[in-house]
Design brief:
single chain; 345 residues; alpha+beta; twelve-stranded antiparallel β-sheet; 12 strands
Length: 345
């Protein structure tokens, strides 16, 4: 039940929480990407990584998407989930994966990056505005049960925190209370392999939209909601004083790169408080919020554009990163004092 919501709160619309597979105490979410100034170079580089995500220890869920970042570089990303962290360890320690990553060139027109987090189940939440029993989805949504549990813990500011079980007993205070990036013009990360120490209790959100099965709300969503959402994500990517370390507005794709009728945002914040402050008080998110409710208030029938999100707060030591020949505004690289050079065998 709501811990911080208004007394007697009743949500205005139904929403559902997904279930992780039975017995899952923690899971892995990993982003493996190729970055280049040209879209075709980024796509080719990412396609070369595709065969790594096969075999006995392959991910339980594998998605693909692309975005243009705040520096104008094209990034194509594999978004992978493993529901057993030990299986991920065996995958990334395998000879084929290690050698492929270690042999990536640290110079030239193409860069690569990976960001991997082990997420304790009690530090993750999900929320969906559609039961989604009729068609496949991306992310954790692919592992929902058909009969999802409806939750009253939504439709009020701060509900995302309440849906994170650990928030009942932990303050989730950030190790990085203020995010101050280094000057964006510094590109001394090019031609290098760098890892970044990620501070504890950073917040990760993946929020997604799927209009592939929509017949009632597709046009309204694409005309009135999606452009507002995209502007909000662009604001976060360009304004680190919001506490957003990185924001990526991805168009989702099939494994071969063909466009899909769905999109997602992946964003890192210095803390869940920074994320929630933007949600409840900044005009860019309030505009997203208003456009959504204007769409659903039309009374055309049940909402058939699917929305869902996954929010996690990551304990110290649970996020690992590596950037190979990437520009200085990539991911956690703006945390200049946390850089370490990587030497491969």
């Amino acid at each position: 039940m709501p811990r911080t919501g208004p007394p007697g709160h009743t949500p205005r619309f139904p929403a559902y929480s997904s279930r992780l597979p039975k017995g899952t105490d923690a899971f892995v979410f990993a982003q493996y990407a190729c970055q280049a100034r040209a879209a075709d170079q980024a796509a080719e580089g990412t396609a070369a990584l595709a065969e790594l995500f096969t075999g006995a220890h392959r991910p339980d869920v594998l998605d693909r998407g692309s975005f243009v970042d705040s520096a104008g570089a094209h990034n194509v990303v594999w978004l992978a989930y493993w529901f057993d962290p030990q299986t991920y360890d065996r995958w990334q320690q395998s000879e084929s994966v290690r050698s492929a990553w270690d042999q990536l060139p640290a110079d030239g027109p193409v860069g690569h990056w990976r960001e991997v987090c082990v997420i304790p189940a009690e530090r993750n939440e999900t929320l969906h505005t559609h039961r989604r029993e009729d068609y496949a989805t991306s992310g954790l949504s692919q592992y929902e049960a058909v009969d999802l549990p409806e939750t009253p813990v939504h439709d009020y500011w701060g509900a995302a925190r309440d849906r994170i079980d650990a928030s009942a007993v932990e303050a989730l205070e950030p190790a990085l209370p203020v995010f101050e990036p280094r000057p964006a013009q510094e590109d001394d990360t090019l031609g290098r392999r760098l890892t970044v120490e990620v501070p504890g209790n950073v917040a990760l959100i993946r929020t997604a939209q799927d209009w592939s099965a929509s017949t009632l709300y597709r046009e309204k969503y694409l005309a009135d909601v999606k452009p507002v959402k995209d502007r909000g994500v662009d604001f976060l990517a360009a304004n680190p004083d919001s506490g957003c370390i990185a924001a990526r507005n991805l168009d989702e794709q099939s494994p071969d790169g063909s466009p899909l009728q769905r999109a997602c945002t992946v964003a890192w914040f210095a803390s869940i408080d920074h994320l929630l402050t933007w949600c409840r008080s900044h005009r860019t998110h309030l505009e997203i919020y208003a456009s959504f409710f204007q769409m659903v208030s039309g009374g055309e029938g049940p909402l058939d554009v699917a929305f869902w999100h996954e929010v996690s707060v990551l304990p110290g030591g649970s996020v690992t990163t590596e950037y190979v020949n990437c520009h200085a505004r990539t991911g956690f690289l703006p945390l200049a004092t946390h850089h370490h050079s990587t030497v491969t065998a």
